[in-house]
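2024-03-11 09:14:02 INFO worker-7 job=invfold-0412 stage=load source=structure_tokens
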């Protein structure tokens, strides 16, 4: 039987190579969702804020001016090394990095006053375990903010999204629908206070280059796009060069 790496190793392989690209990625470095996370932190002034699945560290950078200390947590140590260097470059000494799986956080119960997680959960092999850990380490009544790409309710569009995501990035697990998010958060013990939908245009060349998608897989994505039914092509606003638009959501919870 062929031996293949587990999900954690796939994530580390993918994001170790692409770490620096996520720090400079325009898609990740800005946006109304990031501004909203910063505004929440500015309002409550957390003693300890957790950026869960930090990636390029942009949530941590947004939290740092408003929190006494910020923990940027990620599975990829290569990614965390880049985040640590960027925090120094930006003059943000309150950011500390933590290499850990979201499903097994080495933190005490109620250790954080705020948790934020942005464009990370679709990589988690066990979202229920990760959300349960987020709830465990968050103090009672503390705010949590989750941002991610969401899957469409229509099955054909959902299948299209998961297919192109996986072809582009083998660490992709699943983009969930809003209803699935609501159910998962409720199961973990969160109460949702706001749901803010948005859209995000993905430039095809930049989207594939950031993950170093091999040409054969990029070509496969273009083939899937070319075969998409009219309603699917319309939903994602697929452009002649392969660029397209994703639905995203920001969910606030306590």
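2024-03-11 09:14:09 INFO worker-7 stage=emit residues=254
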């Amino acid at each position: 039987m062929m031996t293949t790496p587990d999900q954690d190793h796939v994530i580390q392989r993918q994001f170790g190579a692409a770490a620096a690209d996520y720090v400079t990625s325009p898609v990740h470095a800005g946006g109304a969702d990031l501004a909203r996370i910063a505004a929440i932190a500015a309002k409550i002034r957390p003693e300890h804020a957790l950026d869960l699945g930090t990636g390029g560290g942009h949530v941590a950078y947004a939290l740092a001016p408003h929190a006494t200390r910020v923990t940027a947590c990620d599975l990829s140590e290569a990614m965390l090394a880049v985040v640590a260097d960027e925090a120094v470059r930006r003059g943000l000494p309150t950011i500390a990095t933590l290499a850990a799986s979201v499903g097994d956080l080495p933190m005490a119960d109620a250790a954080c006053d705020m948790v934020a997680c942005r464009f990370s959960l679709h990589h988690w092999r066990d979202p229920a375990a990760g959300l349960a850990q987020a709830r465990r380490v968050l103090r009672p009544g503390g705010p949590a903010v989750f941002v991610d790409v969401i899957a469409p309710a229509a099955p054909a569009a959902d299948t299209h999204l998961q297919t192109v995501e996986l072809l582009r990035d083998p660490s992709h697990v699943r983009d969930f629908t809003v209803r699935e998010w609501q159910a998962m958060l409720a199961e973990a013990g969160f109460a949702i206070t706001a749901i803010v939908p948005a859209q995000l245009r993905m430039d095809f060349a930049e989207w594939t280059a950031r993950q170093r998608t091999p040409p054969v897989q990029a070509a496969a994505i273009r083939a899937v796009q070319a075969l998409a039914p009219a309603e699917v092509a319309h939903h994602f606003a697929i452009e002649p060069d392969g660029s397209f638009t994703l639905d995203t959501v920001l969910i606030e919870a306590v």
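2024-03-11 09:14:09 INFO worker-7 stage=report msg="The first strand starts at residue 48 and ends at 52."
2024-03-11 09:14:10 INFO worker-7 job finished
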